[in-house]
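Section 3.1: Structural characterization of target chains.
Under the original work plan, the team committed to producing a structural model for every single-chain target entering the pipeline before any wet-lab resources were allocated. The record below documents one such target. The sequence was received from the expression subgroup and is listed exactly as submitted; it comprises 122 residues.
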Amino acid sequence: MAYSELYVCDTCDYDATLVHAEEWQAGRNGEISPYPGYGAFGGLVNRLWCPECQTVRPYVFLRLSPPADHAVVAYAEAQRLGCDGRETGPCPACQTELTWQADTVPCPSCKTGTLRYTGGWE
């Protein structure tokens, strides 16, 4: 089950949600779409902050080949590989290293506020 962290601008209503170990399914044109509740699982993805793009980007840390019929397969494979849901890597758009650090980042929307951690949930 995915765990999410919410960061909200202290000046405007902009928010960014970082997600640990979300199940995904390949969408149109190969997009990494959240699992809709039916069909095959593609694997697990983290949604992280890109400091260069100033937005949340996906990082696939587990790709099942072939896709599985149940999420437990993805989580079992992640555990076998030693993944803990905090994996990070390059931004798919600009290749900058993605990060879990979004707290105190300048707001990309209003440019005057700062993103602040407001909580997490499963």
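The chain has one domain: 3-121.
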